[in-house]
Structure formats: structure tokens, C-alpha cells
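Annotators were shown the component list below and the corresponding predicted structure, then asked to write short factual statements about the assembly.
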Amino acid sequence: MKIVRPAKAGTMESNDIYIMVYPNENGNEIQLDSIVLKQFGNQIKKVIMDTLNELEVENALVVAKDRGALDYTIKARVETAIKRACE
Amino acid sequence: MINAVKREIPEFIEGYGKVKPFMGAYANIGDVVKTSVKIKSVKPNDKKVLPSIKDALLKCGIKDGMTISFHHHLRNGDYVLNMVLDEIAKLGIKNLTVAASSIFPCHAPLVEHIKNGVVTKIYANYMSGPVAEAVSKGLLKYPAIMHTHGGRARAIESGDLHIDIAFIAAPTCDTYGNINGVEGKSACGSLGYAIPDAMYAEKVVAITDNLVDYPACPIEISQEYVDYVVVVDEIGDPKGIVSGTTRITRDPIGLRIAKLAAQLIDEVGLLKDGFSFQTGAGGTSLAVAAFVKDIMKKKNIKGSFAAGGITGYIVDMFEEGLFKALFDVQCFDLKAVESYKNNKAHQGMSASMYGNPHNKGAVVNNLDVMILGATEVDIDFNVNVTTGSNGIIIGGSGGHSDTAAGAKLAIVVTQLTKARLPIIVDRVTTVTTPGETIDAVVTERGIAINPRRQDLLEKLKDSNLPIFTIEELKNMAEKLTGVPEKIEFEDRIVAVVEYRDGTVIDVVRQVR
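Structure shown to annotators:
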């Protein structure tokens, strides 16, 4: 899928994640801020990256503000944001 | 060396001294000696009221390396600690030890005094906010020493913690040093934590914003202990001292946990006439009180006492006749202050009477049920309330370890996961309270009973309550959240966690 416009999904509530997606020049890039960065930062990035790959997204900048979301929440929010950012 | 909760502790800690390892919750109770106090007695015509804090400091002979103490009844509205330290810093004094029963975000200016070497050592039973972060990051020269509320009283009475000057924030004080907490614009109720300080410090200075004619009655801290009295405009911000009301949680998860905890108390047969109870002021803990209240009313049970930091909710239960008396070391809200002032059976208690393991019997020993919180619980039932799972100090025992050790049934109430973090883990970041004193953990998805309590498991064998092993609860949590990556620490010790008997139960290392 091709990102054509910025889009967002999610909230800043506890246990949710706020995802913003922008078109990017060179591949996929993630900027993550999380209240559990030390404990789960790598796992959250992996879930975001896996979701991008599943949706065949190639050039996206994902800005994520995590408030302790579980994996399925992260996946759902990323997917929704991507779909909003595409045609 | 390895202590009784399997923690690797050095035999000697720089800035702390030789370590006595934790040997078990009841291993170190028996013959003890209380220390003597050097004081300066007064002549009939001596006056105690001085014009300023600076005058009091000079009269007390403030000098480098002294230990000064504070109590925390003004909580996050306290002005006294900051006022005194600012004056001391202006005098150019260095290397002080601050023994504060608790440190809150309002004490942020202390961080500057730490950086400048005015303060190089801290004792506290609880610390949160900028000072706790500064300690966690290693800014303090020597390790902070974390006590329990009862353990601090023990340390003072035994002489382990020698106080040169105690500063008492006094909502009301007379010209000869009699103090109470129930009158005045900064009224905070019971002054229980300040009592050991007043009795065992060499010098005692009352700082008040309500100086009254002699005598100020009722007397909570008496003239026989107080050297000087200083009047200031305000000792604290009333908004931070007591909250207007303490509320029961409306969160359905918190309510579910509370309901399960109340059912557990009932099913193990503790809810009967003469019942005694303590709970914290947190929303879920208070909700347990609400469910317990329902059962008590339904079954027409007359309890004996409720204890602790007292909230309006507990006062309501007392005024409805559900408890004969309240034991109060600290009032949490205005309703508690009002009741403490007016009800004869709303009894004040000192920190020592509350939880000191080395006296002739603390109130915690008479508790049937204690409701506790946790940031982490491990599969040995050890509880952490000292550090967050990122390793930063966010609290401390307070009365946690004291009440857990004393109560017949110590129940930890907690969500199974909080913001993706599993609360039940293999090994807590810091041991605050040893697992041998925790009897049950209640979460929204199930209850774990400590296998040491076969008697409880026997009573619950036909119960409909969702009872699991602690490992099963841990697995449930990890299935939801995943396994967190380990936090890394530096080698340097930034805080020593003392159990209530003065042995070292754990250390906190600097966060990376």
C-alpha cells in the first residue's frame, strides 16, 4: 500500500497507542515514545514493523506515542492509520 | 552474602556501614535496649519563643554533619522542610543528614541542596517526586536509607538513627511548646510520626503558624520535649495537607478486585464480632472497605477497631457503630481530622505504637486484616512498593511491611497488569515486604494464596472464589503483556532498604 497523506489512529488514553503515519522517502521508519520503552520498546517496534510488512507498506514514517498498549491494540491502530493514509 | 529473601547484599556498604542481612520477619525480636538522650533542661524563667528559624538554628548549635529530622503530616503541602533547609544552606552548613519520615514532590528544592553538598544523606520511609528521582540517578553522596514507619521509630528509639535537631511542623503550639494538630489553619490531625523524633532528638524546634496562649489543649506533643518555638506565616498549603474527600474507585476492575477481597475475608472466617481492619487511602483499597462494610451490616457484625492513616470513609464506618475505636497515626482528609478532634474513641497513636517491632507490642500485631497495594509481587509473594519497574524510586514501605508482619491476613490487592506491565513477576525489582508476611494476592482475574498458609487453602477448598497458584496468575499476566525486557542497573547502590527490625532486605542500584 502506498501512503499518500498523513493519517492517525488511537488515543492518548492509558493502555492505548496513538499512531501518526506520514509519507516517507526512503523506506519505513518508526519514532517511538512509550511509558514502557525500557521493558517493551523493541517488542512494540517489532509489532509495528510486522504490521507494515503485512500490509506491504514500503515508505511510511510512523510516529507512535504508546501508553502501555497490548500487541493486538498496537496492530489494530497501525492498520487503521495506514488504511486512512492510503487511497 | 545472600539474605533470607534471596537478595545478594554486600557485607559493607560505603556511606552506610556494616550490613546486618535480613534473616526472616520474626528472627530479630526479643531483648533490645533503648538509647538515652542528652538534653538541656530549662530553668523556670527561660523563654522558648524565638523570632526566626535562623535564631533557632543558631541556638541549637547547627553545624556541619548534623542529622535533622522532619515528619510528613503536612504531606504534599509541607513548607517546613524547605524553609529550614533554605536557612541552613544560607548559613553555609554542609554534609547534613535529613531524616524525613516521608518526602513528597513539594520537596523538590531539596534536590539543589543535594547537588550543593548541603545534604549528603537521607533517611525516609517513603519518597516520591524529584528527590526520589535524584536519589535514583545517584545524585546523593551516600545511599539513602529507606525505613518502614515502625522501623523508623525503632531506629530512633534504639539510637541507630540519632537526631540532633527535630523540626516539628505544629498546626497549633503554645508559648511553652505544647503542640496539637487539630486546631489552626493548617490542622492535619494526628501527629503520630513526629512523636519518636520529639522524644529522642537532642533539640526539638516547633515551627507553627498558630501560636496560642499557654496551654494549648489537647496536647499531642508536650512541652517536656520542646526546646524552642518559632512562628512563621504558613507551615503548609492546606490544599496539599489534606484532601477534601477520599473517594472509592469507580473503575470496574478496581471494584471487582475489591469485591473478591471482601469475599475472601468473609470466607476465611475473619468477618465476625471483634473484627479489626486497616486499609490504605487508594481507590481500590477503600472499595474493599465499602464491600466489607456491606457484609458487616448485613451480618450485624460489631468490629473492634480500624487503624492506620484514617480516611473519612473509615470514620463513617466508625460513626455507624461498625468499629468501637480508631487508631490514627495520620489523618488523610478533613473528615478524619474533624473526627480525631471530636471523638474520644478516635485514638491517636505514635509511629512506635503503630508498628515498631521492638516495643512491647504494636497495634499492627492486633490487626485481623490488612489491605495492601503493590507495584510488583513475585512468585515468592515478595512485594515491591519502593521502585517502579523502570528502577526509579517511587515510594517505599511506609507501613506496608509493618502491617503485613502484624496482621493475621495480609492481602495485596492489585490489577494483574498495569499499562502493559505484568504486576506478578518472577522476581520483584526491589523487595520491600517479604513474602512470608503476605498471605494472599487478589487480582481481577483471580486470587493466589501463599502456600505457607495451608490453613487458608483448607478453608477455601470448597470455595467458588477463583483461586489459582501465584505462578498461574503470573502466566496469565505474561500471556497478555509479553515478558518485559530486564532493566539494567549500574553497580552503585543508591538506597538501602531496611526491614522494620533494621536488617537489610534489599538495595536499590543506580538506574542506567
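Statements collected:
1. Chain B has 15 helices and 29 strands.
2. The domain at 50-241 of chain B is CATH 3.40.1080.10 (Glutaconate Coenzyme A-transferase).
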